[in-house]
Amino acid sequence: xxxxxxxxxxxxxxxxxxxxxxxxxxxxxxxxxxxxxxxxxxxxxxxxxxxxxxxxxxxxxxxxxxxxxxxxxxxxxxxxxxxxxxxxxxxxxxxxxxxxxxxxxxxxxxxxxxxxxxxxxxxxxxxxxxxxxxxxxxxxxxxxxxxxxxxxxxxxxxxxxxxxxxxxxxxxxxxxxxxxxxxxxxxxxxxxxxxxxxxx
Length: 200
Known about the structure:
Elements: H1 16-25, H2 29-51, H3 54-70, H4 82-110, H5 120-141, H6 146-157, H7 162-169, H8 173-199
Helix pairs in contact: 1-2, 2-3, 2-4, 2-8, 3-4, 3-8, 6-7, 6-8, 7-8
């Protein structure tokens, strides 16, 4: 879960990257939105060149900025600019994503077997499983912070784009994207925790 950080007095470190990173460390999501506005084009462009896929590049872009929000202490400006750090992170995440997809493709090809025809019994079981998953997901969504839950409902239940979510919630587009990514990351964690409990 993304920990909320109280926004207090942030000492100016000469402005620029240093100030933005310090504001993010202090929990100022406006600083994250500013960094997004400055560097999202670069991050997306790098991810697009590596993945050669628009959707994957968008996902990598969101992962990069979610990681910056969750792990701002990892940024070491003595080793380079924030732009350089984000570019390195984007390239690494994009390569990881390509490798993951290639591995999944190989695994699916190796284990491909003809699917049996679905009879009435299978359809009833599938419908029951879908109903259970829907109720279960609603319960997990209730465990998210209200602002993340609202963004996810608008995007995935109402079918709004990032831009529309931002307008509906009267927030910046970068903030809307962060809330969606952070909420989805938290849901994955909750699902993983439940899977661990089920087999323990």
